[in-house]
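Milestone M4 deliverable, item 7.
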Amino acid sequence: MRLARSFSAALHSMWDYKGRTFLALIGMLVSSLLLAFLLALLHNFQTSIEGQVQGFGLRQIVAMPGRVLNRKIGQFDLSTLLSITTLNSTLTYQDAVNVKKRVPGVVAAVPQTEIVASAHYGQKSTEILYTGTTPAFDKVFRLTLAEGRWLDQTDLQKMAQSIVLGAQTKQALFGKADAVGKTVVIKGVPFRVVGVLAPKELIGFNFDERAYTEYPMVIDTTNVRHASMIFFTVSNHAHVDAVSGQIDAVISSDHHGTKDYMLVKADEALHIVSILMKLVTAVTVGIAGVSFLVSGIGIMNVMLLVVNERTREIGLRKAVGAKSYQVLLQFLAEALIISLAGSGIGLGVSYGLLKLLGYYFAAISTQMPGYVVEYSLLFSIITGLVFGLAPALKAVRVQPVDALRYE
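Output delivered:
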């Protein structure tokens, strides 16, 4: 009951000093917004990546150019990530063929090569990623077609100059008109459009601004000679580690023992993402902590001014019987209300920003995790109590006689 009266008195007093209350609340709002929005954004980014990697499949192994210095078997952590050196690709179409032949556990080996080029249709043109791959590519990435079909084995064997357009490429060249059966010119070569991909968003991959054709066709029509990546699908997730070693042995043998590539498994990628997110989250919490500290100092300074202005009121309350603890509770309640109100508004604004972000970036989820709300409220409560204590104690020390001297 006494606590309820303290909060009621605090609300009335805050209403009498609306301007200064608002200034103190703004600082807490910004701090809460910063903490909640950044933590939620990091959480959703990690969740989206993990969901996409798992959707891509935990049976996948990716060969890519580069080298990890001093890597120990079975270890892949932040220090490993920092020791990656980039190298020009020496991976080839034949590497994929040899792995598929020699490693029984590999059910698909899909090379990809790419180069920026211009695609032309009539008077229209657009820049694309001119991409060479094989018929199994769509199954590896679980692509969906909006029109026509994907590349097949006949296209590959006959070098049929067939092409599948990404969603944005099709839109740039054909608009709403059908593209299948039309002819698109790339690198001076006419290609017959056999399919159009449905829009697909995957963090780290751009499918929509590509044009896919047979791997050998890209090699023949450009100066690109090596694969940018090779995607391997393993028959059983339990055998991924063993199969990875076998893939490594085949490619290393084909490259005469030169280790100018690296193999990344899906679970390793998830592990790296987790480590990076923990690091960035720790930095974010640290920055938000400093922001809450500044906001707390702002609350304290505003309330110290308010205590000075309310010296007469406090002295009179004590003169008519108000206890010191009642004054203390009232001012702590004021600080706590300002903190919680600012935090609540900040959480609401951050939720709105997340939804706005999700509208423009559909690949990122827009959930507000419960722990983010808990952290924000906890920080605000601690800030309010700690920085409201000094003004509350100053108010407690006001004596009834001070009310008579106050002008």
